[in-house]
Specification:
Length: 124
């Protein structure tokens, strides 16, 4: 059998041993808790709607750019630069195409949906 210390007769210890006895502190605890920063948000395991929409927009843009420019076969840096310039000019010339304009509208719509909360907060 272990030796157990005798319970103290200190009034504070008696209050602490009672189950539901709050100690009056003139609002000190409430002020301390109000001054604490909010808890950190829990990390999300699934990608957000914003990340999915932005990724789809970026992939769509890359697919259109590569489809319009043709295959890139660069053996050295000079050929790569020329091919990149050709691809860039091809994409720039295709911006007037209704298909490209439609894809651009879809990309802008996906961005608007992804940032809907932020846009609504800024507008009112």
């Amino acid at each position: 059998m272990k030796n157990q210390p005798m319970p103290s007769e200190d009034p504070l210890e008696i209050l602490l041993r009672q189950e539901h006895a709050p100690i009056a502190d003139d609002g000190f605890s409430a002020r301390v808790l109000a001054a604490l920063p909010p808890p950190a948000p829990k990390p999300r395991l699934l990608p957000s709607r914003r990340a999915i929409a932005c990724s789809l927009g970026a992939i769509t843009g890359l697919v259109v750019a590569f489809a319009r420019s043709g295959p890139l076969r660069a053996n050295d840096l000079t050929e790569f630069g020329a091919a990149l310039q050709t691809a860039t000019m091809s994409v720039a010339h295709s911006l007037g195409d209704p298909t490209v304009l439609t894809i651009g509208l879809l990309i802008l719509t996906s961005l608007a949906l992804a940032y809907a909360r932020e846009i609504a907060a800024k507008l009112g």
